[in-house]
Amino acid sequence: MQVKRKIRVLVVDDSAVVRQTISAILSEENDIEVTGTASDPFYAAEKISREVPDVIILDLEMPRMDGLTFLHKIMTQHPVPVIICSSLAERGSDSALKALSCGAVEVITKPKTATREFLEESRIMITDTVRAAANSRIGKRSPLCSLEVNPKLTADAVIPRVKRPVLSETTEKVIAVGASTGGTEALTEFLRGLPLDIAGLVIVQHMPENFTRAFAERLDRICGIKVKEAKNGESVLRGQALIAPGNRHTLLKRAGAQYYVEVKEGPLVTRHRPSVDVLFRSTAYYAGSNAIGVIMTGMGDDGARGMKEMKDAGAYTIAQDEESCVVFGMPREAIRLDAVDTVLPLSKISAAVCTVSRGM
Fold first, then answer.
1. What are the pLDDT digits (tens) for 158-187?
2. Catalytic residue among 282, 302, 350, 357
């Protein structure tokens, strides 16, 4: 029996405390090992020249060379999956967004160690992101670990599974979208392909708190439709996409014929907050056959069960295909559950959503 080698990680951060904390978190995992740490990009470059890691965790603010410059050098000289771990992500800075456009796989916030709960959530976030990065197409050589992720709580923790209510008739459509690793670029392409009169969208992209606001503002500048971070009680309108805020669950609700969102706190669901499963279940509950569900690139199974509930409620469901995914985890799990009506490359999803929304 062939034993899979561990995922080799290089941690680059000028803070000794952060390097030690991340190393301690990763060292507890059987399938991950920290093969080196570096206090700045120059030391990191020396280590990479001796051994190319499978994943690099990189800070943006460092002495001698900033993280963005180093990221560019990595992508042009030694393409390796890079995770940005920076306090700038928590503030939702443009630098963190630029890092994604420059080739970073994911952006996460620095580990929180204030309480046991925060430390546990940081551990889940970091280890899951490392596994997703190791299995991404960027610099991918061979699978290093299973894409299977043992889920924690289900959507029951936020929205109970109950019989759909009898609601007043409506013909108003709504589009629910879920994405994770690689999703920022996938969502950009998808949203830029939508017309101004498209049905209202609600989107969950796994992102740190505050970073979703900057991401929504960036999308709003480059897309034809309006894009904004969702606020509690906000209406879902045609020609507008609402991005679930980081660290908050976002649910679709309905009053009469009008859809709106509820933004609320709650535990991690399928290891995430916001959770795609929570959004999809609420969409199945309140929109039923008037909904379209789209699940995109990402690791794990968040959204798969919720999409099955959407399909069972009469919604039309679409999954991104393996070839165009950075990580074919979430779509694969939805397909496995028979929750998907059609599987499409990213380049064709916008047109399909338009066609379905007009023909429903």
1. 666 656 554 545 678 999 999 999 999 999
2. 302
